[in-house]
Write a structure and sequence with these properties.
alpha+beta; Creatine Amidinohydrolase, Chain A, domain 1; 6-stranded mixed beta sheet; 20 strands; 24% strand; globular; aminopeptidase activity
């Protein structure tokens, strides 16, 4: 953690930013290992060019002191911002996910001369994963995939999508995960043409294509995988589209280190175009993943940053035909010369 803070302080020095103010978000966890939800009292981790400290309500004092960081506390009823030694006119980088009420108070109290999102400084650090982070993501994937294989035994005609989603979530916890890393998606039949529909009370029917997009939270990190299931043999049109989507994924997974997110996205998109289904590919090819499910880098049109070694991201092309069905196939990869797939699940349709 201290090494990460020192890297951020070097960036502050280079960019001439006085303070980075982080809320209880994934950024705070990245630099300190501390996790808490945002509530109405300000709880910050503040990094300057020379030091770093927690700023917190008195109720957190004992808890935070055990983390070997300096802690500045305030009591209920006090104006907390009077306890902060931030000069007026300082330049501030503020956590993108910090509640707006805190941002407004910081602006009103300290009149910053320069204000920018902290992601401008922190994303380049977080995008490149260290070996411990990659190991944690692999361990999380093992839990998620084992849970999915157990979940397949639960799928039967007449079950609702949401009941099945809950069963998968239960398996994550049973196997040692903290829970789902996002709202699990289990959709069937025509519902699968809506990429981010979570689930409904629609009953699974024989012959349905079932889309399962799932991930586990493990040691603070997230996984994200999508597989296609069918109850009975999938129809010929489903199989045809599935093979096109799988081919598009293979194209993107054959990209090379140093290509941009835009260029990798184009590999998948151009493959779809050969089969005249690119108009049904309505989202980006992938996104970075780590503590957050969606973080930089993005495998998307217009994303012109290079994808370099140890960046971890998803490759998830899809085709969605409104009112009929949708197909998506998603793996997590780490860039190492070319994308190395971290998943071990079969890429075939799981016909039950």
């Amino acid at each position: 953690m201290r090494t990460r803070i020192k890297k951020l302080q070097s960036v502050l020095e280079k960019e001439n930013i006085d303070f980075t103010i982080l809320g209880p978000t994934s950024n705070m966890f990245y630099f300190t290992g501390f996790r808490e939800e945002q509530m109405e009292r300000p709880l910050f981790f503040i990094v300057s060019k020379r030091n770093s400290f927690f700023f917190a309500p008195k109720i957190y004092e004992e808890q935070l002191q055990k983390m070997d960081f300096d802690v500045v506390v305030y009591n209920d009823g006090e104006d907390p911002y009077t306890k902060l030694d931030i000069p007026k006119g300082a330049s501030l980088a503020v956590d993108d996910q910090l509640w707006s009420v805190f941002l407004v108070n910081l602006i009103n109290k300290f009149s910053p001369s320069n204000l920018l999102p902290a992601s401008a400084l922190i994303s380049p650090l977080r995008m490149v994963k260290d070996e411990e982070e990659i190991r944690t993501l692999k361990e999380g994937l093992k839990i998620a995939e084992t849970a999915f294989t157990r979940f397949l035994d639960e799928v039967s005609e007449g079950d609702s999508e949401c009941r099945l989603a809950r069963k998968l979530d239960e398996e994550f916890v049973n196997l040692g995960g903290e829970g789902a890393s996002f709202g699990t998606i289990v959709t069937s039949g025509s519902n699968t043409s809506m990429p981010h529909l979570r689930c409904t009370e629609k009953k699974i029917r024989r012959g349905d294509v079932i889309l399962v997009d799932f991930g586990v939270k493990y040691k603070g990190y997230s996984t994200d995988t999508t597989r296609v299931v069918s109850l009975g043999n999938p129809g010929e049109e489903v199989k045809k589209i599935y093979e096109i989507v799988r081919g598009a994924q293979e194209e993107a997974e054959n990209s090379l280190e140093g290509m941009t997110g835009d260029e990798i996205d184009s590999l998948a998109r151009n493959y779809m175009r050969k089969y005249s289904v690119d108009q049904f590919f309505i989202h980006r090819t992938g996104h970075g993943i780590g503590i957050d499910v969606h973080e930089e880098p993005y495998i998307s049109q217009g994303y012109n940053k290079k994808i370099t070694r140890n960046m971890v991201f998803t490759v998830e092309p899809g085709v969605y035909i409104q009112g009929k069905f949708g197909i998506r196939l998603e793996d997590m990869v780490v860039m190492d010369g070319k994308p190395k797939v971290l998943n071990s699940l079969s890429k075939e349709i799981f016909a039950l």
